[in-house]
UniProtKB/TrEMBL annotation:
This is Branched-chain amino acid transport ATP-binding protein. It holds the Pfam family ABC_tran. Gene3D superfamilies: P-loop containing nucleotide triphosphate hydrolases. It comes from Roseobacter litoralis (strain ATCC 49566 / DSM 6996 / JCM 21268 / NBRC 15278 / OCh 149). One of its GO terms (cellular component) is plasma membrane. The lineage of its organism: Bacteria, Pseudomonadati, Pseudomonadota, Alphaproteobacteria, Rhodobacterales. Residues 7-255 form the ABC transporter domain. Transmembrane segments: none annotated.
Length: 265
């Protein structure tokens, strides 16, 4: 195995019939980094995320996490190893409160077995109290403690994304893949999400990989930035280096002149 990153992807392919969504991608995600993943639509970014996170099995190639071969492991196994993929579409239990949504996350809860329901009531009560306290701490960290008792289905799209970020804090996340956190989120809330990501990275040691079209957001959070095009890694560096890269400019311009503005911002 090559490389010593938190995540190492080696010559990864994912084909759908004749379409090569990921076509020989190799990359490393350094532990403790906030790595940005950019590229034109159809570059293979989300498919790459889905293969790393076990949602899709690769056609060929390998994925390693902290030196362990995790290729093709299902999402729940990766969840227990601390690898979480989130966002793009925020999923929540809409009729439950935000606090209850967070309390649902940790696995292996005492109340989950019938035996414990009959014989372990005190243990369940203690665990629920601890979970409730942790959920409240998470909501406070995210500066949305005022939403604790609100039904999750009634909060805004951006607040749902914050709640989903909160879910990663209810377990021992090591690396979190964020897919289009900025989509449909107003600037103020996006800044709050950005603040939370930076704090989780700096204070709790989270590693993040972020797919995002908002270059201001990428510029604020991410170093390094990896650019994909046509299923492969095209370039890697700081955002300024990426923006100045002729191949990157060509990749964006090749999909229509409107993208020229994307790289400027």
């Amino acid at each position: 195995m090559q490389g010593t990153g938190m995540i190492v992807v080696e010559d990864l392919h994912k084909h759908f019939g004749g379409f090569r969504a990921v076509d020989g991608a190799s990359l490393e995600i350094a532990q403790g980094s906030i790595t940005g993943l950019i590229g034109p639509n159809g570059a293979g970014k989300t498919t790459l995320f889905n293969v790393i996170a076990g949602v899709l099995k690769p056609t060929s190639g390998r994925v390693f996490m902290a030196g362990e071969d995790i290729t093709g492991l299902p999402p729940h196994d990766l969840f227990h190893k601390g690898l979480l993929r989130t966002f793009q579409i925020a999923h929540e239990f809409s009729s439950m409160s935000c606090r209850e949504n967070l309390m649902m996350v940790p696995g292996d809860q005492a109340g989950e077995t019938l035996w414990n329901t009959w014989f372990g009531r005190k243990r369940i009560a203690d665990q629920e109290r601890a979970l409730r306290a942790k959920a409240d701490e998470v909501l406070e960290f995210l500066t949305v403690e005022h939403l604790a008792d609100h039904k999750a289905g009634q909060i805004s799209g951006g607040q749902k994304k914050l709640l989903e970020l909160g879910r990663t804090m209810m377990v021992d996340a090591r690396i979190v893949f964020l897919d289009e956190v900025g989509a449909g989120v107003n600037r103020t809330l996006l800044n709050t999400i950005g603040d939370a990501i930076i704090r989780l990275n700096q204070e709790r040691g989270y590693t993040f990989v972020v797919i995002e079209h908002d270059m201001d957001f990428i510029g604020r959070l991410c170093d390094p930035v990896i650019c994909m095009a046509e299923g492969r890694v095209l370039a890697e560096g700081t955002l300024d280096q990426i923006k100045a890269n002729e191949q990157v400019i060509e990749a964006y311009l090749g999909t229509g002149l409107k993208n020229k503005e994307v790289l400027k911002h």
